[in-house]
Specification:
By secondary structure, this protein is an alpha/beta fold. It is 36% helix and 22% strand. The protein folds into two domains: 141 residues, Rossmann fold (3-Layer(aba) Sandwich); 33 residues, no CATH class. The longest helix is centred in the N-terminal third of the chain and has 15 residues.
Length: 187
């Protein structure tokens, strides 16, 4: 079976929640899976030991996390040589006309400006986690939601992730793994 690196960046935890939902599906299929959170502090990760990559990153104020983007650009050569799926998590994806990868402006912009050429991409709605925001963030996000005809009540957190879509994306990855010949290099 394959050795997989699930690389992600998450601020309030929705991207982590998605990754953690997918991981057991892959381990039950017999794959070895390492969850690796990409953080602002640089960290050496030996990507050559992996047969495939599953990447996820959230958007905040219209941009993917800079440290995640920097990591991907620095490692694009190896990521592009192996099976690689990428998903983006953002609030725009809660809308029917923005929940498909090539209809989501944030994902499209990222792919146009990145060296990453993933085998498959997806976009998932995120979560409004007002309970985790400070006062200024709450007001800013409420304003953005109001402008975009989204929910503005701060009384409870709201999740927009389509879990069926997440599972289907994971199943596609699992199917693609069946076609991968392990070719890891030990370093």
């Amino acid at each position: 079976m394959s050795r997989i690196a699930m690389l992600f960046a998450s601020r309030e935890g929705q991207t982590r929640k998605i990754i953690e939902k997918i991981q057991p599906l892959l381990t039950k299929a017999g794959h070895q899976v390492d969850l690796i959170q990409i953080k602002p502090e640089p960290r050496e990760i030996n990507l050559k030991q992996y047969d495939a990559f599953f990447l996820g990153c959230s958007i905040r104020y219209g941009k993917h996390h800079r440290w995640f983007c920097d990591f991907v650009e620095a490692n694009a050569d190896i990521l592009n040589k192996r099976l690689c799926f990428f998903f983006s998590v953002n609030m725009t994806a809660r809308k029917p006309n923005r929940c498909e990868p090539y209809m989501n402006p944030y994902l499209v912009k990222y792919l146009e400006n990145s060296c990453l050429t993933p085998d498959k991409v997806a976009v998932f709605g995120g979560a409004l986690k007002y309970s985790q925001y400070n006062f200024l963030e709450t007001q800013l996000i409420r304003m953005i939601m109001k402008l975009n005809k989204g929910p503005t009540s701060t009384e409870s957190d709201i999740e927009f992730t389509d879990w069926v879509k997440v599972i289907n994306f994971a199943e596609d990855f699992k199917l693609a793994l069946g076609k991968v010949e392990p070719e890891t290099e030990v370093a």
